[in-house]
């Protein structure tokens, strides 16, 4: 990643300048985490928008008002991005916050707090495909080149937020103890209600069956894709060109099979083994020991 006009480098990680600045990263470093803050942490293209859609209503009794009236980047902002300093102090507690940062780069107040973390993992092959298409439509990112060229960049960590393996490993940290819940994109696709039940239990919260039904229904990929507050249709075309590729593209597992050559598939075998110690199976429903 060499285009300094598009990216700034933070602890070796390339971050898009359109959403990150020296000031936003200073705010990130000095941010005062509250004990009742709830973080959804992901590597890019691993279910962040989905968490921004379901986490706020889970924290406020199933009320869908915020997800129907407030853009996702304001209702559950990225802590490291420029919008954070504008909106976070105005959000009522408990706050839903998202981040793409590695564990070791979180603000010092995070480590002293009791704030909880929901870490969402996704099959890295599907992450690669989704990120490739995102690069094609996001004009604030460098041109991805061919899929094979972009795959090499992804595998070597020359994409925004660095190596997928480094990110996942950093959050598989025993220091977090019972402060973290590991879920997967594929589990959410397979049984969203069950995953939401797990999240509620982890957060010590309850919803009525009717309220949970509303959140589950609203949180389907089909409904998110048509929600202007979540599908990025509010973003000008000269920044994100949805004609080239919609931001919410397919929302499926296994699309990598439509893109990968046998040679690339062989290159990627190490991703699961080295990063996750064979604890996660991505082809079906996954289980991550807590």
UniProtKB/TrEMBL annotation:
This is Sulfotransferase. Residues 35-265 form the Sulfotransferase domain. One of its GO terms (molecular function) is sulfotransferase activity. GO terms for biological process: catecholamine metabolic process; xenobiotic metabolic process. Its main location: cytoplasm. The keyword rRNA-binding does not apply. Belongs to the sulfotransferase 1 family. Its EC number is 2.8.2.-. The lineage of its organism: Eukaryota, Metazoa, Chordata, Craniata, Vertebrata. It is found in: Cytoplasm. SUPFAM superfamilies: P-loop containing nucleoside triphosphate hydrolases.
